[in-house]
Amino acid sequence: MTDPLVIFDVALALAIVALAVAALSVRDLFAMIVLFVVFGLLSALAWVRLSAPDVALAEAAIGAGVTGALLLKTLHHLRYVSGTLGQQAAYGVTPLTPVPIGVTLANAIFCGLITLGLAVAYLGAPAAGPGFDALVAEAMPRSGVDHPVTGVLLNFRAYDTLMEVVVLLAAVVAVWQIERGVSDAPAPVLGEVWQGFARLALPATVVVGTYLLWVGAEAPGGAFQGGAVLAAVGLLLLLTRAYVPQPTHRGIARGAFVLGTGVFALVALLVASGGRVAFEYPLEHAKTLILLIEGMVTISIAVTLAALFHGREPVAQTKGGRDDT
Amino acid sequence: MTPDLIYGLCGVAVFGIGLVGALCAQDRLRRVLALKLCSVGAGFLLVVGAWRTPPATPDPVPHALVITGIVVMVSATAVALALIRRLQSLEADDER
Amino acid sequence: MLEIAAAAFIALGTLFFVAGTVGLLRFPDIFCRLHALTKADGLGLALIAVGVALLAGTAGAVFRIALVWFFVAVASATCGHLIARYARHGVRHD
Amino acid sequence: MNTFLSLTLIALLLSILAGLIRVFRGPAPAERMLAAQLFGTAAVAILLVLSQLMQMPALLDVAMVFALLAAVTLVGFVVLASRGVR
Q1: What chain A residue is nearest to D84 in terms of C-alpha separation?
Q2: From CA A208, how far away is CA C12, in angstroms rounded?
Q3: Exposed / middle / buried, residue A288 (Cβ in 10 Å: 0-12, 13-18, 19+)
Q4: B63 closest CA partner among A293, A131, A9
Q5: DSSP label at A313?
Q6: What is the pLDDT of residues D28-71, one digit of tens each?
Q7: With CB atoms 3.0 to 4.6 Å apart as the test, which of A17, A56, C44, C63 could cross-link to A47 if both were Cys?
Q8: Does any domain span residue D85?
């Protein structure tokens, strides 16, 4: 008899593939986003099965949660602009130009060939490559933390992580350039039950985010997961319009955007000035430095993700500038 | 049948589906979503590559790469969606 | 003995989940479905949490399971309320 | 015991998959949101069982994050799906 866990794995994998197909083929765009969020949820479960809880956390929080919220906000905006907000179902919101069936077919065949090649390459690859396990395991005592993934992210491959924070910064700069205007949308009325819940949930979410950051040193968690959970607080505040970004708050926001990158680079420079390689932290201070960087990066990530969700730069309102979600 | 084989094939399939969607989908929102599916498929392959038969612990380097990839992907998605919103606003202004 | 009790709790919880899903699929309108799903799922999760907590053993794990259960219970009640409001008269903005 | 837990997982996963039918059939966004709530709760239950089955207590943290995010996503659905009045 086969292990029932294998059946679970096969069912989960089939469900993920089916959800991917469904998300791309369902007509209603709202249903598409719901299916996509469920797809993210199930991929996170699959990564848990592959013993990658860190990745699962990041995917659930950022890949499914924040991305889903971004898509939903864009859909809402598109429907508002195109005047189809009153309709029950959200079919296409962008104008469609008919594409010859031959082109679509050629594209599909092309993609099929690439996928086939990928599958052949995957099946033909050696079962387990050498990997970096041994190297990481050997270097772990010198990293200052106990959790390998955090060690890799903030010590052994800290350059990658620095660049990643820079990418986030670049994204928020680009979004602020693309969209401008101030929000004058009224606040949604969610009722007293919601108010009571928000009083409980917002502080609880802040605690969980901070806990994830702190636990990252020895268990799955860390700056990105903690930052994403804290960003969820920002998303809630923005969604319910409990907080509306004001032009005067731009300075603080900008400070928060560059905080992570700045502290990260500063620490690297200070370490380098002591005659070491940029991210070779002195062992006795390694944990302190990593926690400092992680803390600042967490704040940056939380504020940046919330700003990416909000979209436009809050500028002083011009006359008749009524363009928002 | 081990989890790495099952989820590896699943990752390849998701990547392919995303690729077809990105090239063939008509709606802009759906295309962005299709690209995100591609990135999840690629993430699957990396995580599968890191997997070791329990009780051995998996290789942390690909895990870190996938986490980095997820954050980069959300930045790219945010910029793409901002462009879509702007484009739609401009088109709506043209029609008036 | 403990294992049998835990298994019974988990099995019962799963049964409630299945029942909730059947309700979601079979009931005629949104309010009936809401009624079936939120209550059955809440109870199902509580039973599964008790079962897993019996198996877990360590105090830290039990505490975290209790926390997870508490949050899901509060959140699902609120979300059920919000969905009902939405279904009844959309979301007003003012 | 492990076989029993695996069977539980399969039942919970099937319950998620059955809920997907509701996402497809709709008809109103409210039904889809309700299905999303089912997925959140069921995923938390799956994670609780998996934490026991795979002997990974860290999964309880993952379950906590899932629970929080399910709530946030659902509020997003409710607020941003508003039709009519804005």
Answers
A1: A86
A2: 30
A3: exposed
A4: A131
A5: B
A6: 778 888 888 888 899 999 999 999 888 888 888 889 888 888 88
A7: A56
A8: no
Q: Which residue has the tokens 């997961």?
A: A225
The domains of chain B, with CATH numbers, are 3-95 (1.10.287.3510)
Of C71, C78, C93, the CB nearest to A188: C93
A187, C61 in Cβ contact below 8 A?
no
Q: Is the dihedral of CA C85, C87, C92, C93 positive or negative?
A: positive
Neighbours of A198 (CB within 10 A): 17
Q: What is the pTM of this model?
A: 0.90
Tell me the per-residue pLDDT of A168-201, one tens digit each, with 9 for 90 and over.
999 998 988 887 655 555 566 777 777 788 888 8
Which pLDDT value is given to residue A317? 53
Inter-residue contact A54 to B47 (CB < 8 Å):
no
How many domains does chain D fold into? 1
Rounded CA-CA distance A294/B31 in Å is 34
**Nearest Cα to Cα of residue D85 among A53, A280, A85, A276:** A85
Name subunits touching C (3+ CB pairs < 8 A).
Answer: A, D
Closest CA to B60 of A54, C35, A318: A54
